[in-house]
């Protein structure tokens, strides 16, 4: 590339001049390319170790004038091809112009100005994202692509100097972290180390410090482990690796690829070694921590944070902490998180002003809200800028209901545009404000007549309500409430039933979403109800299983409310839809909240507080199950070992986490855990689970089997009671486990919660997130392995490949799909991967990817004709005509090529030249041709039953009016659906045009075979024989009024060739000419027509001779008994036309092929799929090797 001219004093130090003219010198750096000796090795090693390879390209062009000792560097290149293009441009455009100048200074000024102008023009066309990156970083990115053979779509995030441990020897080099790969390169004294690992292959990533590997990072895949150490800042490097691995796991989980944030503000100045992608990922990490800390929505973006103090009127003191400002909120968190936390939505802010500064309150800012609360922040470093940013956000806040970045922004806008229609009760058929559940929870509806006014329980409940009233008076009420240790203490003592719904909404963050989306739930219910989907069917099946012991769900009111909430959420988030256990959690929410409140609480649970818990594979619950096992190993090591032997932990914990103990504990007790969960998050569930195991440790250690351990834990949880509840007792379904002579002792739920905080309260949310990351890699890769085994088991009976071969093919197939997601058509990647589909159909590839795999794994490679053959096979396998092929269809095609006998292989090849595989010039006539063909209608491939069902349905519709025998047609349709084994008699006839294409394919297939000449000889004989068979069949068909072959079109009689006399050259007239023309198109030379008398043979002798194209053989290879079939002159070839009546059958093709041993041996030969797969896996390594080879070596190879 052209570079800004820089002065170079020592032009020949570490460089070798390769070209020169009076004004320019082209140089190559020592250590690159061939030769160089010990000096070259030292220079190459120094470049890698000192990172000069990122600054210094291996080639450069210098400008020099006259006898001057000063040189100017004007261009550099990573390859000889690139630098040669610049050199040729200089010679063609500047040499003649420079020779006119008389003054050397004028020459240098002109060259520098010209190069600067070229650079300025190039910079105008560069993307804005690249402009943010420093020049050094762009050079490093180019070097990464060159070293590892990456395309331009692969973006470098950052690179680090480190050591890679190969065995016990560290190799100093550079670690390149891109969006999709982790790469390492080292060159030390002639020894090169190159490593490329896809992030999607990483199964474990951890940072450790041992004597052998100090401060190292271990990257594990399914087969190998890699150690990297000696980082300048190992923590920053590891955090970035965690982020990139998480992106890869998200891609495996739901096909969610990485999309750069285009709205990221540009830095004030270009950072030296920080790319735009690195800034993007850093901003994402900060946003995630910010949203998790304050329970904010996914579209909330942190604008900035600063240190400050907050005046707390309840404590009469200033608390030190950090102030966070985002697009919709102002938040504060004390340095000690338990001391104070504050969330101020901008929609509640009325006034923001700068207060008077003093020595006690330097740089204060006062923020007042609509509910008359005032918050005073002080010790702000840049108060003016902060107030301006808040003012900017406030100007955008009014009148904004739905976020533009919300996943359902379109639904939101449709609601706002139709508020008048939605507000009409007559228009709302399913949900309106008159419903009892729209204004209060089910518990309040069904407890109205319960006399529970007196007694100690009611008194205690009143005391709790009074305590919260005092708290609201001191700390505020609503979203702007101060949240302190006092708040947590009140939550642990139990939230009063009258306040439970309000406080759940507040602590979970659901209140903010509900307030900013008014009318959203009502509109969503109207859209969702009445639809029939898989999710709605599952919801209907589980409605009556949701807390059937509670009287609120023993009638239609509760069931209908539950149906509406679950159906609305399934419509909002089709990626989750509905998952078992959602009904149990939602039914509890409906007891204390209105329908709309329960809906937004469910949104908070599924999308923020319990991420990935309720998707199709309950990944989040499995991840937390792994975290729980790890916590058990750390906190209860003796019990962990015993429980692992019994296999109990993985069995019990899944139901505990999915339902938040609601399904395994009495309702009145479990709801107290839900109180703590909404305030503390998932950590309280882990704490209580560990406390349950600790309380039963002695008994569990004496268990001998899994059933006994589960019975002990079940009895314990059944007897966790809430003695303070004022609700009537609800029978618990698990009480049957408490059978025995002596009833087990009761456990007070408050004591259990207190014990969990006393023994395991040191558990931090950051530690849980770190363990979640480690377990997420393990769980998702385990699920991928399970999917692979499921797919292999599903198709192994229908394929001749071994289990190991099918697994390797699946890996290659999935890798091609994933690669297309980030290097190919990313816009359609989500459509190709649907996690709700069976494993067999989740990954699908399009035509382009299929052609690449066919070229790497197929046995029928035809040179330039390979892509055409691959496209035909793709169309044949694509039974539903959606332009995509799943793994089973892909294996079906490969199995026919590798493991079929000669008949099966020829049948596949024959079908590849018939519709729908072969696309004729008239695509619109293909369907009519298939329907009008007189051969039996059968599928072209065993799985293409859609065509048969469609035809049967059409027949039923045509006769439905005439005959009313419904049972008869149902039986006929069922019979049509039954798969029938295809025979060779079912295949349609082949016309002349299709036969010519078949000949072209065969000639191209044999072009690289060791027995090439013998195969050409044999196929020419077969082609000639089949042409004659077709001519004979045509005559008999015409004489008997025979039918036309498949694909034949009506043609005028004058255009149809009707030879009464056979061609004296042993051919069949126009048919032979067309075959020769096809061979010519297949890049086989065809000689002129032979006319000498001694070369004219009798037609009857053709069958006993080998007939070949003379252009396919050398002169010395032609035997005495060989007849050379001429094709006539160019004029005859151009004037030949297709014979519309000519046709042959597959039986005739097969019989003719069997007469030639060379063809029989070729098609009976078994292919080696293992070698093909090994070559396909090494393809990336070969690309890297070629890309890192010197240009001198490549030039030698090309010659």
TrEMBL record:
Sequence intervals crossing the membrane: none
Topology in the lipid bilayer: Single-pass membrane protein
Spans annotated as Disordered: 1036-1073, 1084-1103
Biological process annotations from GO: system process
Domain Rab-GAP TBC: 494-681
Compartments, record wording: Membrane
Name used for this protein in its record: TBC1 domain family member 9B
């Amino acid at each position: 590339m052209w570079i800004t001219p820089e002065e170079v004093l020592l032009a020949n130090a570490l460089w070798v001049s390769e070209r020169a003219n009076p004004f320019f010198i082209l140089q190559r750096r020592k250590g690159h390319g061939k030769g160089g000796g010990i000096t070259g090795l030292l220079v190459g090693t120094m470049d890698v170790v000192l990172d000069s390879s990122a600054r210094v390209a291996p080639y450069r062009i210098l400008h020099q004038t006259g006898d001057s000792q000063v040189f100017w560097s004007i261009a550099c290149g990573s390859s000889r091809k690139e630098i040669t293009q610049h050199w040729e441009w200089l010679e063609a455009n500047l040499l003649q112009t420079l020779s006119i100048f008389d003054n050397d200074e004028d020459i240098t000024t002109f060259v520098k100005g010209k190069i600067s102008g070229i650079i300025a023009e190039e910079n105008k066309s560069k993307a804005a994202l690249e402009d943010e990156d420093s020049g050094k970083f762009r050079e490093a990115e180019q070097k990464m692509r060159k070293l590892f053979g990456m395309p331009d779509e692969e973006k470098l995030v950052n690179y680090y100097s480190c050591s890679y441990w190969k065995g016990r020897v560290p190799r100093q080099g550079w670690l390149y972290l891109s969006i999709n790969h982790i790469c390492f390169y080292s060159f030390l004294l002639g020894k090169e180390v190159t490593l490329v690992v896809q992030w999607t292959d990483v199964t474990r990533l951890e940072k450790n410090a041992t004597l052998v590997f100090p401060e190292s990072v271990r990257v594990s895949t399914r087969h190998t482990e890699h150690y990297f150490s000696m980082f300048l800042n190992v923590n920053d490097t590891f955090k970035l690796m965690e982020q990139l691995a998480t992106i890869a796991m998200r891609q495996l989980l739901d096909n969610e690829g990485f999309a750069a944030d285009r709205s990221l503000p540009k830095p004030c100045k270009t950072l030296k070694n920080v790319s735009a992608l690195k800034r993007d990922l850093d901003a994402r990490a900060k946003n995630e921590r910010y949203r998790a800390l304050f329970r904010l929505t996914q579209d909330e973006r942190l604008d900035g944070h600063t240190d400050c103090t907050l005046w707390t009127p309840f404590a009469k003191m200033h608390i030190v902490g950090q102030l966070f400002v985002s697009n919709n909120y102002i938040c504060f968190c004390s340095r000690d998180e338990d001391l104070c936390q504050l969330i101020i939505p901008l929609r509640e802010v009325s006034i923001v002003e700068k207060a008077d500064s003093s020595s006690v309150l330097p740089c204060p800012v006062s923020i007042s809200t609509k509910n008359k609360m005032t918050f005073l922040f002080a010790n702000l470093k840049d108060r003016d800028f902060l107030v301006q940013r808040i003012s900017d956000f406030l100007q955008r806040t009014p009148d904004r209901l739905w976020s533009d970045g919300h996943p359902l922004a379109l639904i939101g806008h449709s609601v706002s545009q139709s508020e008048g229609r939605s507000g009409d009760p007559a228009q709302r058929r399913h949900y309106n404000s008159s419903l009892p559940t729209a204004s209060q929870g089910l518990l309040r509806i069904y407890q109205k007549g319960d006399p529970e006014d007196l007694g100690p329980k009611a008194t205690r409940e009143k005391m709790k309500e009074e305590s919260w009233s005092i708290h609201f008076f001191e700390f505020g009420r609503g979203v702007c409430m101060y949240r302190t240790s006092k708040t947590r203490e009140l939550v642990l003592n139990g939230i009063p039933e009258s306040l439970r719904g309000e406080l759940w909404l507040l602590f979970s963050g659901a209140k903010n979403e509900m307030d900013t989306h008014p009318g959203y739930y009502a509109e969503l219910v109207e859209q969702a109800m009445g639809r029939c989907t898989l999710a709605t069917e599952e919801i209907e099946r589980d409605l009556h299983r949701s807390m059937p012991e509670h009287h609120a769900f023993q009638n239609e009111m509760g069931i209908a409310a539950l149906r509406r909430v679950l159906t609305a959420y399934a419509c909002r988030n089709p990626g989750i839809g509905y998952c078992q256990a959602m009904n149990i959690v939602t039914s509890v929410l409906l007891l204390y909240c209105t329908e709309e409140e329960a809906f937004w609480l469910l949104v908070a649970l599924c999308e923020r507080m319990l991420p990935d818990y309720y998707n199709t594979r309950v990944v989040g619950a499995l991840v937390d199950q792994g975290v729980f096992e790890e916590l058990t190993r750390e906190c209860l090591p003796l019990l962990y070992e015993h429980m692992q032997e019994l296999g109990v932990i993985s069995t019990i914990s899944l139901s505990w986490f999915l339902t938040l103990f609601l399904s395994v504990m009495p309702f009145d007790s479990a709801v107290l855990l839900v109180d703590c969960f909404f305030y503390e998050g998932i950590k309280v569930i882990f704490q209580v689970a560990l406390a349950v195991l600790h309380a039963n440790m002695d008994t569990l250690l004496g268990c001998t089997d899994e059933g006994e351990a589960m019975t002990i834990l079940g009895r314990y949880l059944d007897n966790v009671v809430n003695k303070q509840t004022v609700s009537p007792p609800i029978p618990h379904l698990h009480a049957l486990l408490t059978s025995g002579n002596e009833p087990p002792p009761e456990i007070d739920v408050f004591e259990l919660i207190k014990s969990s905080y006393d023994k395991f309260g040191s558990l931090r949310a950051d530690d849980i997130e770190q363990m979640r990351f480690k377990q997420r890699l393990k769980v998702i890769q385990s699920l991928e392995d399970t999917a692979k085994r499921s797919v292999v088991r599903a198709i192994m009976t229908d394929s001749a490949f071994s289990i190991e071969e099918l697994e390797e093919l699946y890996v290659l197939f999935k890798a091609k799909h994933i690669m297309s997601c980030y290097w190919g058509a990313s816009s359609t990647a989500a459509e190709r991967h649907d996690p709700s589909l069976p494993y067999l159909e989740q990954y699908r590839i399009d035509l382009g990817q299929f052609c690449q795999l066919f070229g790497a794994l197929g046995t029928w490679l035809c040179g330039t004709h390979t892509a055409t053959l691959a496209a035909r096979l793709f169309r044949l396998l694509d039974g539903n005509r959606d332009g995509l092929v799943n793994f089973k269809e892909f294996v079906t095609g490969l199995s026919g090529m590798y493991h079929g006998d000669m008949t099966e292989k020829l049948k596949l090849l024959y079908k590849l030249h018939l519709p729908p595989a072969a696309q004729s010039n008239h695509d619109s006539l293909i369907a009519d041709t298939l329907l009008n063909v007189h051969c039996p209608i059968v599928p072209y491939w065993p799985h293409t039953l859609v065509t048969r069902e469609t035809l049967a349905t059409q027949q039923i519709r045509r006769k439905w009016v005439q005959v009313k025998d419904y049972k008869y047609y149902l039986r006929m349709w069922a019979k049509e659906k039954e798969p029938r084994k295809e025979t060779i008699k079912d295949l349609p006839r082949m016309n002349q045009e299709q036969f010519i294409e078949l000949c072209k394919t065969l000639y191209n297939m044999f072009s690289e075979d060791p027995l090439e000449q013998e195969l050409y000889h044999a196929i020419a004989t077969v082609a000639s024989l089949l042409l004659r068979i077709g001519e004979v069949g045509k005559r008999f068909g015409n004489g008997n009024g025979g039918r036309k072959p498949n694909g034949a079109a009506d043609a005028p009689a004058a255009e149809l060739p009707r030879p009464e006399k056979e061609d004296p050259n042993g051919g069949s007239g126009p048919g032979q000419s067309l075959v020769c023309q096809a061979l010519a198109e297949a890049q086989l030379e065809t000689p002129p027509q032979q006319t000498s008398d001694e070369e004219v043979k009798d037609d009857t002798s053709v069958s006993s001779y080998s007939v070949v194209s003379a252009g396919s053989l050398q002169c010395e290879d032609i035997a005495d008994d060989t007849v050379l079939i001429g094709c006539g002159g160019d004029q005859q070839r151009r004037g030949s036309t297709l014979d519309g009546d000519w046709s042959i059958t597959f039986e005739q093709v097969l019989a003719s092929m069997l007469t030639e041993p060379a063809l029989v041996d070729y098609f009976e030969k078994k292919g080696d799929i293992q070698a093909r797969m090994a070559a396909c896996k090494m393809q990336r390594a070969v690309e890297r090797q070629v890309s890192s080879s010197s240009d001198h070596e490549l030039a030698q190879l090309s010659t």
